[in-house]
Design brief:
Helix content: 55-70%
Structural class: mainly alpha
Largest sheet: 2 strands, antiparallel
Order of helices and strands: EEHHHH
Strand content: under 5%
Number of helices: 4
Shape: elongated
Mean pLDDT: 82
Low-confidence stretches: none
């Protein structure tokens, strides 16, 4: 038996390595995407379009630590986990997803409200 075939919670080590590698690559990719979007839209307030303003606001409100739970859940789909662990991952994923969605909806409402106030009364500044 090689080290790659060593079972951990009933799964070979290479499954665990692949699972966590997928999770790490996704989180790294998202973090890099977040940096690219922030740099690309750094001057979003100076443009006429409000779409880039919204994208910058939404990305700034994305919490990478909340994305960890869905990423781990998706990455562990190749593993055979005990039912209690699997259920806990599902529950954490649902809660984290709804919290992140709440942050995005909150940011959208703030963004829309600030634009509405500026449109209604030009003397109002944010």
């Amino acid at each position: 038996m090689t080290i790659n075939e060593t079972p951990i919670w009933g799964n070979p080590l290479h499954f665990w390595t692949a699972s966590f590698g997928q999770a790490a690559l996704f989180l790294l990719g998202f973090y890099l995407l977040k940096l690219i979007v922030k740099r690309r839209f750094a001057n979003a307030a100076e443009t006429e379009s409000r779409v880039d303003d919204f994208i910058l606001h939404a990305v700034s409100k994305t919490k990478v630590w909340l994305l960890v739970f869905p990423v781990i859940y998706l990455a562990t789909r190749i593993l055979q986990l005990p039912p209690a662990v699997d259920k806990a991952l599902i529950n954490l994923t649902v809660v984290a997803s709804f919290v992140q969605l709440g942050f995005w909806v909150s940011r959208l409402a703030q963004f829309w409200h600030s634009g509405y106030r500026q449109h209604d009364d030009p003397s109002v500044s944010t």
